[in-house]
Amino acid sequence: ISFDISEEVHLPPNLQTFLVSQDGESIVRQFLEQYFTIFDSENRQPLLQAYHESALMSMTMSYPYGQRDKSGSWLNWYTTDNRNIMKVQDPERRQRLLKQGHVAVVQFLQEMPQTKHDIHSFTVDLVIFTPQMIVLTVTGMYKELKTGHKVPPTRSFFRTLVIVPAGTGFCISNETLHVTNATEDQAKNLFKIVVPAVPAAAPSAPALDD
Amino acid sequence: MTQIVKSKIDQACRVAEEFTKLYYETSDKRRHLMSKLYLDSGLLAWNGNGINGNERIQKFFIDLPTSDHIINTLDAQPVLDSAVNGQLTFMIQVSGTVRYQDRVPKSFQQNFIITAQGDKWKIVSDCFRLQEPLTNNDTKS
Fold it and tell me: Is residue A3 part of a domain?
């Protein structure tokens, strides 16, 4: 005989998409398709138009819990610009590690390793959707290409964008990016469609064949 | 102008340090106070589950298994005025590990938009994601 309150409490299921407003769906889908198609191309310079003139962007990195063998997937490239303010205490360095203005942002994006994102691995959370401001978090996996690893490493990312209206379209005013390695469990699903893609209708680009 | 941005960046970092300390202490040890951290109309997106309003968010937290968060990285920036009309607003990015009840810890990432309401910081939106495969719902491992 045991006690009634010792039963296990379950976590809510993990859902691929949350949209605070259904009206945001097509804008979000279009934006992500366009953004990551350019991001995965040889030239990320056209992203300049996607950012506000005074845009702010920063990146942090860490290894996932319990990953012991990092040898095939060191995150060395990401350490230089890791704006982890728990470690970076100096206010001047905190300023410098924040990319300020669209030119600085895109220059940094341009320097990042070549990537191939798996759009079917994406989760999307649209948490704010008003005429003045859209806030969107995307997570997912990408393969890192041409960085001298024997096997291209599989990274997992968490990216939040603040998007504002600009002219007839939109631009990004703030962005934070977190990069880590995919766990073994995650990586098993890379470039395999597990559930219908983000959100509802499947985006056609980018091509997912290796 | 540049000086204003500079001081806002410094402030965003300091507020983020205080805020995250309080947020994770409260969610691990004093969940009945969670609603005080959010705007009345605040939003939580927890692994894709959307919860609207601070009262419902409070209930959601109380129903979660007990948690223990460890923070690995923290980052913060001021949200540009063009998005928030001059209303002082910060974006905060966190990564770390969380252990629910006696399960194996998992990596998580989280993003907050917080804004000044009177003399208090309040959460406008809170987006939490466990780092796990999409099909792997609520497993014990």
Answer: no
Cβ separation B133–A188 shorter than 8 A: yes
Identity (one letter) of the amino acid at A155? R
Taking the domains of chain B in order of start, what are their residue ranges?
2-130
CA distance B83 to chain A (A): 5
Say if the ipTM goes beyond 0.95. no
Cα of B28 to nearest chain A Cα, Å: 15
Cβ-contact A72, A150 below 8 angstroms? yes
Q: Under an 8 A CB cutoff, do A189 and B135 touch?
A: yes
Residue holding tokens 């999409």? B134
| pLDDT tens figures, A170-186 | 999 999 999 999 999 99
SS3 track for A164-205: EEECCEEEEEEEEEEEEECCHHHHCCCCCCCCCCCCCCCCCC
User: Given 3-state DSSP classes, what are the helix, strand and coil percentages for chain A, each rounded to the nearest 5?
Assistant: 25, 35, 40
Q: If you classify domain B2-130 with CATH, what class do you get?
A: alpha beta
